[in-house]
Amino acid sequence: MRADDDERARSRLFVYGSLLDARLRRRLLKRDVVTVPAILRDYERRQATYFFIVKRPGSVVAGEELRDLTDHDLAALDLYEEVPQLYTRQLIEVEIAGGAREHCWVYLPRRC
Length: 112
Fold this sequence. Notes:
There is one protein chain. The chain is α+β, with helices and mostly antiparallel strands. The protein has helices spanning about 5-10, 20-30, 70-80; strands at about 15, 35-45, 50-65, 85-95, 100-110. It contains 3 helices and 5 strands. Strands 1-3-2-4-5 form a 5-stranded mixed barrel. The termini are far apart. It has a single domain (about 5-110), classed as Hypothetical upf0131 protein ytfp, CATH 3.10.490.10.
């Protein structure tokens, strides 16, 4: 990943659960954010108390990529997602419309 790609990746987040709700995001971030439909290949979405994803070859998780997030935005979302107690935030590759692949953050469960 080139330095400018890495910088863009760090301002994006793939969401697949409660953060798909624009009203919730607006409440947490105090603003609207740009979103694009995205999929995460080889993962499966599950739900216990909270939504989470696990590695599963051949599966696909549909979600959205949030774009142009600030460090303040990510800190607010980390607090909501209870990082590091419940989730970790890691860089991952997602597929957006037209098949383009991009790197972005995703919340992964600490334990399943």
